[in-house]
Amino acid sequence: MAGRWRHDDNPFEESDGDVVNPFSHPRPTPLPPEPVGFYNDIGASVDIPLDAKKDLKKTERELMAKEAELNRREQEIKRREEALARAGVIIEPKNWPPFFPIIHVDISNDIPVHLQRVQYVSFASLLGLVICLFWNILCVTAAWVTGHDPRIWFLAVIYFITGCPGAYFLWYRPLYRAMRKDSAFSYGWFFLFYFFHIAFCIYAAVSPPFFYVGRSLAGIFQSISEIGENAGVGIMYFMGFAMFVLEALLSIWVFQKVYWFFRGKGSEAQMRPDTASRAPPF
């Protein structure tokens, strides 16, 4: 009959008569067994040669000796720093310029408040001198290339490599220490060499026509001479002249302020800002 289900029509019956479950998954094939070492031994032992053991012990002893030496040096440095502090010697860590510290500059913490402005301006005059001498090298190099005596270039380089560190050690550091410790000797040292610094700036701004025709310094006389020969070099010399003039004026201002403060020791207590509403004299 058409509507009757027959046993032969069972779709889940295999040829041998077994019924297949459609929701069951085939059983995975088991992996072959792996040999296990006796007493759970996971691998063969590695023999370390006696020479390697001796080398390790030797290296360990050397590292311990170096560590002990470093500790000894650190204690020695601390002992010296403490001795210097007891003796009144101030250690100044190098912190300027930030990308390559070569000098110590911490005006806001080292210098009294009523003298910080003068110290900042003196530091600006130091940087101004460095800029003036560097620009002077560029001017003299341009003049040398256009046919002037090469000795003027060597003189310009000598001005730079001696003037910059000389200014720092001869008058900037003495002024820094004088304002920090109120030392009369440091003030005297500053006045002596700062006077020569001002005289050099004035001489460079004028650059009289002698000493290799004066072309080793970018001053007014040489600017006038160069502008007639080469306009570009002449303009560079005029810019150097303006820089030396500004440096001289700035240095004269610093010299005057420091001198007034040094001579006014009797009124120093009045100059100090003892209240918050009192403004610094400089």
Automatic annotation (TrEMBL):
Keywords, sorted A to Z: Cell membrane, Coiled coil, Cytoplasmic vesicle, Membrane, Transmembrane, Transmembrane helix, Transport
Protein name: Secretory carrier-associated membrane protein
InterPro entries: SCAMP
Topology with respect to the bilayer: Multi-pass membrane protein
Highest taxon in the source lineage: Eukaryota
Subcellular location: Cell membrane; Cytoplasmic vesicle, Secretory vesicle membrane
Stated role: Probably involved in membrane trafficking.
Start and end residues of each stretch annotated as Disordered: 1-34
Feature: compositional bias, Pro residues: 25-34
Family: Belongs to the SCAMP family.
Signal peptide bounds: none
Transmembrane segments: 123-146, 152-172, 184-206, 235-255
Lineage: Eukaryota, Viridiplantae, Streptophyta, Embryophyta, Tracheophyta
Species per Swiss-Prot/TrEMBL record: Sorghum bicolor
Main location: membrane
Annotated GO biological process: protein transport
UniProt entry tagged with the keyword Repeat: no
A single cellular component GO annotation: recycling endosome membrane
Basic and acidic residues: compositionally biased ranges: 1-10
Coiled coil stretches, renumbered: 53-83
